[in-house]
Every structure is written in C-alpha cells, then in structure tokens.
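Risk mitigation, structural track. In case the binding assays with iron/sulfur cluster fail to produce interpretable data, a predicted complex structure has been prepared as a fallback.
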Amino acid sequence: MEKIAQEVCKWYTTCPIRTFTGQGKLEPYWVEHYCMRGNKHCVRFRMQENGEYHPDNMLPDGTKRDDL
Ligand code: SF4
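Fallback model:
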C-alpha cells in the first residue's frame, strides 16, 4: 500500500492559521491540505519566506476572511 508522507510546515507552531483552527474559527481543511502537506502552494508561506507582509486573516490560498 502506498504511504502518504506527512510533512508539517516549518511555520506551523507560530502560524495564526493553526491558532484560528484550534479556536474553532477555521475549518480544519486548511491545516490538513496545506500545513500538514509541506505547504507546497501556501501563499502565506511564500510571503513569509520573502519577508512580505501578510495579515493574520489571510488564508493559505491568499483569500482574506473578514470574520477572523
Ligand atoms: S498556513 Fe501556510 S505558512 Fe502557515 S503553517 Fe500552514 S502552510 Fe505554513
């Protein structure tokens, strides 16, 4: 059986996406599909690496949520 490797994003412990999910404000989808999968397409990750400002309420796909 094929084994799917889990690769946790290096920013996970300090990322607000984790905090919002823990508080029940955000669907687990984001953590499951980005943070636990090596963040391959995470916009937050890319901006963090480039030293670019990104607000806490910006999701891994780059959309912003007014309710966060
Ligand atoms: S939201 Fe992006 S930067 Fe934050 S922990 Fe998840 S993958 Fe990493």
